[in-house]
Design brief:
about 300 residues; 3-stranded parallel beta sheet; 13 helices
Length: about 300
C-alpha cells in the first residue's frame, strides 16, 4: 500500500541533498548530514510525541483548558474495576488502551469498560516493550491478532498506542492496513507501569498543561497497594479540577473517535458512515479512499 511522506522521508531527502552539495565544498563534510539523519533515526523512536516515522496524536489544542485521561496495560481484575468506579464517581470518561491477551482473559472487564461509556484502544497483543524494534512480521501479527480479539467484543479500535510509546518506521504501513492511527501521550507521571506510585499525582499536576492527554496505568502496583494507587488517582482528578482543567473524553480532546462499534441491529452501516463523515478528509491521511475502505471491510466482514 502507498502511504504519505513522513517527516523521516523529508529529512532523508534534505540530508542527501546537503550531502551532495557539500561534496563540492569539502568531501569530508559530505557525510555529516547523513550521519545526523542516522542518529535522528536512532533517537526518534524513543520520543513519544515526535511524529518522525508517522503522524502521532499526543494532545489536543493548547488554547482550551481541557485535558483527557488514558489508562494503559489493562485490564487488570485487581485494579480496573476500582478505576472504573472512581471515574464514575466523578462523571468522567477515559480511554483504556488494552493489552489484547489480557482482554481475552478478562472479557467481563472489557464489557464493563464499554458499558460505562469509555473508549478502548489497542495496546498490541502481548505488550512486548521493544515490539517496534522487532521485525515487521511480528508487528503485523501483534496488531492483527489484537484486532481479532477486540472484534469479538463488537468493537474495532482505530487508535493504537505502541508499547512504552516507542515507534518505528515499520508501524505506519501496518496501521494503515488496519485503518488505524497512532495515539501516544503528552503528560505522564513516570510511574513505570505502576512500579513507582508514590508521588504520582504530584508529578503529573506539576507539569500538566491545557490540551494534555495524560498517561496512567490500570495495573496492580508492585511497590504500593491498590488503595495507595487509587488515592493518587483521586488526587490527580481533584488537582485537575482545582487548576480549572476540564477532563473530557479523549475522543473530544483529540477530535476523533478512538474506536468503532459493530452494531448487531439494523443501521450499522449508517452508524459507521456517520462516525466517519465528521472528519472524513482528515481520516484519509492522503491515501484517497484506501483507509475508509479498510475500516469498512474490517468492521463489517
Amino acid at each position: 500500500m502507498r502511504f504519505p511522506l513522513t517527516v523521516a522521508h523529508l529529512v532523508a531527502l534534505t540530508a542527501f541533498q546537503l550531502a551532495f552539495l557539500l561534496l563540492f565544498v569539502d568531501v569530508r563534510l559530505a557525510s555529516l548530514p547523513l550521519a545526523l539523519f542516522v542518529l535522528l533515526c536512532g533517537v526518534a523512536p524513543f520520543l513519544p510525541r515526535f511524529g518522525f516515522f508517522l503522524p502521532i496524536l499526543s494532545r489536543g489544542s493548547r488554547s482550551s483548558p481541557r485535558v483527557a485521561l488514558s489508562f494503559d496495560d489493562g485490564p487488570d481484575p485487581a485494579v480496573t474495576p476500582a478505576v472504573l468506579d472512581l471515574l464514575d464517581r466523578h462523571g468522567l470518561k477515559a480511554a483504556f488502551f488494552l493489552v489484547a491477551a489480557k482482554a481475552e482473559a478478562n472479557p467481563d472487564l472489557v464489557r464493563d469498560i464499554l458499558a460505562r461509556g469509555h473508549e478502548i484502544g489497542s495496546h498490541s497483543w502481548h505488550h512486548f516493550p521493544m515490539l517496534m524494534l522487532r521485525g515487521r512480521k511480528v508487528l503485523r501479527e501483534e496488531v492483527a491478532r489484537a484486532q481479532e480479539i477486540f472484534r469479538g467484543f463488537g468493537i474495532l479500535p482505530r487508535a493504537f498506542r505502541p508499547p512504552v510509546g516507542i515507534t518505528s518506521s515499520r508501524l505506519w504501513p501496518v496501521l494503515l492496513d488496519h485503518g488505524m492511527f497512532c495515539v501516544n501521550f503528552s503528560c505522564r507521571g513516570l510511574d513505570q507501569g505502576n512500579r513507582r506510585v508514590p508521588g504520582l499525582a504530584r508529578r503529573i499536576l506539576g507539569k500538566v498543561r491545557p490540551g494534555d492527554l495524560i498517561l496512567l496505568h490500570d495495573v496492580k502496583p508492585t511497590r504500593a497497594t491498590v488503595d495507595e494507587l487509587l488515592a493518587e488517582l483521586e488526587a490527580v482528578v481533584r488537582g485537575l479540577e482545582e487548576r480549572g482543567l476540564e477532563v473530557v473524553p479523549p475522543c473530544t480532546l483529540l477530535g476523533r473517535a478512538l474506536m468503532l462499534r459493530r452494531l448487531e441491529t439494523q443501521g450499522a452501516a449508517e452508524s459507521f458512515y456517520d462516525d466517519l463523515a465528521g472528519t472524513y478528509d482528515q481520516e484519509q491521511f492522503g491515501t484517497a479512499v484506501a483507509l475508509s475502505r479498510n475500516l469498512e471491510l474490517e468492521l463489517f466482514r
